[in-house]
């Protein structure tokens, strides 16, 4: 008995090391070299100056993530490298943890299958290679589920630890507390936890939340200021959900994204395997449905997936990274299905062993997912980089929707690195490395995720005056006002007015424009002061206008550029 236990632990250690090696080998050579997106840059700025009011980072603040990132940044002294290191490290921790979790629920075989499926899942893969917070969604979701499952099984040792982890997880991603709370509470109830212990566990949960919430509100100047900032951030749902005032078409788009990204999380090969499994087990599902719902393990997984999915479906989802809160649950279900399907196929084809079918199914999943992740798609369509989305037609629209809606892959990371680097180098060369003679004006292009946004410009070119201009042409502004964000030295201010003056110092001799050439704004700039073009790879352009050192009084829409 003792020897068997030692062998089992030794085997688990070997498998854990194998999982670690696979994740490291499939991530480290391909990680991003530059901050990937707006949020990545805001996290990087927060490492230097944590300021929620300045969007460094945006509410709710992710204070524990920023604190952990700052600690790691003392080693690397580069926010992108620090956050990418954390993404890889927590990808490893998540893959190892899900192995031990699933082993406890089912078996070592299903646990290993699940871990492999998660490692080669394109969405999990993608977010494990960039400076992003979403890998923490997956890690804490698995950790909370693991601890809660032990409570459900009646192991009281995990009760207060599960409450502590659930509360602290909110300091990384607040939605973890909201979405995982029903699962945790169900586990306490089914585990026959006494009301007294439930009360104490709730106190532990509240105290754990306060551990990060109190420092957060203090840093913003008080609860009122924090709630005001959070309300402004939450207002984004007013343009996605019909429940809070959005249009029906906006609701359809939002619900469509939640559905597509969830299905994409299952992967193409995973969906096919699930359909094949359902074909094998289609008979008698009506009589099995009610008993299925009464099974506590099935309720456990429903409560893991449903709260987040329903919120994304009805209210708000903007990135596929959001679904990482329940992606591990989908992979556990898929791991179970793959194992069962290998037995079903063996019954149909008895000459082929269960193990052979299992290895084949896993290889198909690994190969298909790897091809999806690494295939050099030519979906960038350089000629439509600057085409407004409502003007895309036919294949252009299809390619655009596939690229920005589905394919989160290594090609996208490489494109972002290349384009970010080219913008930095080009603007630096244009200004002869003198930030005093050039201002940067950011508008919007269709592919801003791989372009150069306001936050990236602020982060990588902090000495430059950077302006982000918003009006009815490139935003949801419908009244007679415009919005100007002005950033320099890692801080910014926002001005709202019918007309905003953008001051030009005597030393400013050129304006660099990051904008689309298919807008009224571009046409006005072209007609009034002229535009010169620098062509970059993948269809991107950088525009600039020489204004010399003389008087300037240029009005473009609601913006006045004035010396």
Main sheet makeup: 7 strands, mixed
Share of helix, binned: 55-70%
Q: Give the total of beta strands.
A: 10
Could you tell me the mean pLDDT? 90
Question: Rounded to an integer, what's the Rg over CA atoms?
Answer: 26 Å
Quick one: overall form? globular
Strand order of the largest sheet: 4-3-2-1-6-8-7
How many individual helices?
21
- Strand percent estimate: 5-15%
Task: Tell me the number of structural domains.
Answer: 2
Would you identify the regions where 5 or more consecutive residues have pLDDT less than 50? none
Distance between the termini: 84 Å
Structure class:
alpha/beta
Would you mind describing this structure in some detail?
With 563 residues, the chain is of the alpha/beta class. It folds into two domains: 2-374, no CATH class; 417-562, no CATH class. It is 60% helix and 9% strand. It contains 21 helices and ten strands. It has helices at residues 2-27, 38-48, 63-76, 79-105, 108-119, 122-127, 134-152, 159-169, 174-190, 195-220, 223-234, 248-266, 268-280, 285-294, 296-314, 327-348, 354-374, 394-405, 410-430, 454-460, 520-529, and strands at residues 438-442, 465-470, 482-488, 491-497, 500-503, 510-514, 532-535, 541-546, 553-556, 559-562. Strands 4-3-2-1-6-8-7 form a seven-stranded mixed beta sheet, covered by helices on one side. Strands 5-10-9 form a three-stranded mixed beta sheet, covered by helices on one side. Helix 1 packs parallel to helix 5, helix 12 (248-266) packs across helix 15 and helix 13 (268-280) runs antiparallel to helix 17. The longest helix has 27 residues, at 79-105. It starts with a helix and ends with a strand. The model has no long low-confidence stretch (mean pLDDT 90).
